[in-house]
Inverse folding.
């Protein structure tokens, strides 16, 4: 089954990749690695999941926001490669969680992204990862995730 078929089976339609909002590129390819710039928790219609985890947003809302980040990473990878079937492995994720000072469940939040990659790619979706709590994100996004992806 192709990755596009797997996404359809999961009810996921990839949005058009979001253009950069500052002086950077969304994806850099070097050798067989793609470095995907941080993708925030915005859906295909442009609605962003905003706010702080532990101060208005609970873990389930954070997981959903991280899942949106994963979908946006997939959209960037597909735009850069032409096909998600070229993915050999999701190598590394760094998840940034907009967190209240006493919120410490960043790993549970970033699981929303990690779980989707495993759902889509199976063992190729298992990756190294960091989950970091920070005081603020651009546009008050709830979550931002960057990725390193190995391609064929």
């Amino acid at each position: 089954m192709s990755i596009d078929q797997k996404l359809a089976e999961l009810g996921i339609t990839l949005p058009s990749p979001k253009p950069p909002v500052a002086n950077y590129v969304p994806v850099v390819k070097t050798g067989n690695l793609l470095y995907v710039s941080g993708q925030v928790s915005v859906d295909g219609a442009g609605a962003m999941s905003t706010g702080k985890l532990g101060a208005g947003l609970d873990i389930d809302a954070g997981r959903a926001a991280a899942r949106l980040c994963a979908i946006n990473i997939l959209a960037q990878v597909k735009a850069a490669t032409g096909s998600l079937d070229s993915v050999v492995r999701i190598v590394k994720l760094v998840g940034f969680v907009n967190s209240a000072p006493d919120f410490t469940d960043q790993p549970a939040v970033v699981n929303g992204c990690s779980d989707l990659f495993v759902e889509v790619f199976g063992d190729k979706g298992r990756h190294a990862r960091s989950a970091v709590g920070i005081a603020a994100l651009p546009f008050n996004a709830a979550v931002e995730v960057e990725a390193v992806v190995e391609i064929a």
Notes: The CA atoms of residues 41 and 49 lie 5 Å apart. The chain has one domain: 30-151. The longest strand covers residues 87-98. The two ends are 17 Å apart (CA to CA).
